[in-house]
Amino acid sequence: NKSVIQTDSEQAPHRKIVLGFSQLGAESTWRIANTTSIREAAKEAGIELWFENADQSQSKQFEAIRSFIKQKVDVIAIAPVIESGWEPILQEIKQAGIPLIILDRLVNVSDPSLYVTYIGSDFYEEGRKAGKYMIDKMSTKKDTIGIVELVGTEGSTPSISRGKGFRDVIKDRPNFKILKSEVSDFTFAQGKQVMKTFLAKMGGDIDVLYSHNDDMALGAIEAIEEYGLRPGKDIIIISVDGTNKAFEKMAEGKINSVVECNPLLGPNLMQAVNELIQGRSLPKRIVTPESVFTETMAEVEVGKRKY
Ligand code: GYE
């Protein structure tokens, strides 16, 4: 049988590229769509995907990465749960000579050569878009505008930057006041719970809810309705992601605006992996193009969403 005496060079082109991917969790609709996109794109590209879900735990991500190193995968990709604490493990990856792609959220490291490229959205811009929409929407209201903010995962890039972009846009407008801002982990359950406490403490003073993602906004809508106020009318709601579920609520007038954040990063990731393996150089930053949607266009857009 000839195949037994195949040399390495004959065999090499037939071996599939192995990509070890450390996904941070399954907290939201965005995340589920992101995982599906990566699985499907890997299949399509003929790349063997080793997938590990870390359930929001950075140390679980470290474990997954160490097992990828041990098993000598060709490329590692990480969607990091928080920004800090990555330098040592990234050094381990570098020492093993395995190229690294950062996906979705960023890592805060002093040496950017520790990863090849970062594929993801411009979260700072998303925060600015949310702030700008709010200023526009509230332009006829001259007195104080009370804002509450549902923050995603503490220390994660989208939470840090969505918070900062939003604040930068309103910083010279003293009538826009953030009454309360609280971490709600990007989940429906926490969004609802935290919104309940906001309402109990300052119900009538809340004019605007800025939610760092759709799941928390959807939870908050339930809390607002249970409290006896009308989401989208008594309280203006601005969210981020652009999931189908949020578009449905926007078509009902219960969410006023959604800033898009595209989770379908699979094809971009697989393209980057292939280019890397072919020895091509990649840009340090690959940004996903995104829009803003408002109630007026919700009905046309709903159902067209891919996530
Ligand atoms: O907005 C949120 C998810 O990192 C961009 O994480 C992602 C965020 C997304 O849980 O829904």
UniProtKB/TrEMBL annotation:
InterPro entries: Peripla_BP_I, SBP_2_dom. It is found in: Cell envelope. PANTHER family: D-ALLOSE-BINDING PERIPLASMIC PROTEIN-RELATED, GALACTOFURANOSE-BINDING PROTEIN YTFQ. Keywords: Membrane, Signal, Transmembrane, Transmembrane helix. The keyword Secreted does not apply. Residues 23-280 form the Periplasmic binding protein domain. It comes from Paenibacillus chondroitinus. This is ABC transporter substrate-binding protein.
